[in-house]
Write a structure and sequence with these properties.
single chain; mainly alpha; 80% helix; membrane; DUF6168
Amino acid sequence: MKHTFTLFSIKLSILLSVAFAIHLFILSSKSLPLYDNKIVLAYVVNAVLAITIFGFLFKMKEKYKEQLGFLFLGGSALKFVVFFIVFYPFYKADGDISKLEFAAFFVPYMLSLFLETFSLAKWLNKME
């Protein structure tokens, strides 16, 4: 089962790397600044949080099998806390969160959440 965690980490790294490259390509093609809005930090933080949360759930799978869904929701709440501590003050500094600021955080957040949810559902179905 350790293979499951490693495979998740690899898939997430590839997914976010490809998304980051596409994100930069789109910004470049529109002549927009590439590395503004804490975009690199957003991708890294989302990757680290997703891997950490998935790893935590993986370690807790036997002891708290019935509560894994709630633990997953707790991990999602942690992501929001990190957003409001690390990113929100920077994005809101000018009084407005622009579409570029929103995309810089939301794209890696949603991709990470999608892969986490998909992988966890697949993993839990195998456990039954």
